Amino acid sequence: MINIIPIVKVSYIIFRFMKHINKKLYNLIKEIFIKHKLSSEHAEISAKAIINAEFVGAYGHGLSRLKMYCDRIKKKVINPKPKIKIKKISQSISQIDADNSIGFVSADIAIKRAIKNAKKTGIGLVAVKNSGHFGLSGYYAEQAVKKNLVTMIYTNAPPAVAPYGARKSLFGTNPICFGTPTYSKVPFILDTSISMINRGKIRFASKNNMKLPSGVALDKFGKPTTNANKALKGVQLPIAGFRGSGLAWMVDILSGVLTGGNHAGRVKDPFEDFSGPQNIGHLFITFKTNLFVKDYNNRIKDNIKKVKRLPKVKGVKEIMYPGQNKYKRYKMNLNKEIKISKIIKEELEILKK
Predict the structure, then answer these.
(1) Which of 183, 301, 307, 164 is nearest to 246 (CA)?
(2) Which one has a higher pLDDT value, 24 or 110?
(3) CATH number of the domain residue 201 falls in
């Protein structure tokens, strides 16, 4: 994981985490969403997703995006009172027209429908169109994994990454997410963007005057930069060169072309483009662990323990599977003070008025 390195001292306001959800902060976010015309139910769904991002240390998907969601509601490019339609294609397959709802709500409906379909038939496949940014894919994957299901989630994003060989951004950072139950209470959740660093981290760095690591972005002239503002106007670099570009393309097809959502660079930037809804597409896939074998739990236990027993390089205490680090951060933050920058505090004060 690439860490963002602060270059200036930031002022903070402190909230103390309680078990499960910080009630004060949660209620504040919920009230802000209700003030912006979301129903109480939709405000709760959205507030919980934002709090979760703060718990797991994904600050670029947490409070730093709250103003953006509210701005888009005020500009009428997020529909606070959507009439979401669910089309049943088969016992296993559903399509959701989110009616430009806030992404948290459409994703919550979609993962629950995918879980329901998989429990009934073994496999759940749910496509979503006319949606928006839904936060962390891993948040929804965990819901399926807790029901003893394997899951894959795809969603596309605004242009940020240039296709291999091109000089202009077209693909989003298009995260790929995979989750599976394990033999322990810690799920295996791989939730990663196809870029060297996710867009949320760059925006978080920009908002808080922080420096980026080298090798993650180019400015608009194609030169390497560690300046977050220049990176936002330039190009993000994909993981593994043309392979990362290919994965971004794959996600754009699965979540955009296949679902009926925007694709090929047409997803609008949520912070800067208020000319219309984003029409992001999502694809949720869930399936039972016992479709082909009856001893999946033993087999996944053997798989993970085999990897963990491998000889370790110097300085590594434990070989961890995807999701373990995030789970440790979550548990640690439950009873820890959370620091909110002065800029975010000022935004919260304005939004709640």
Answers:
(1) 164
(2) 110
(3) 3.30.1370.60
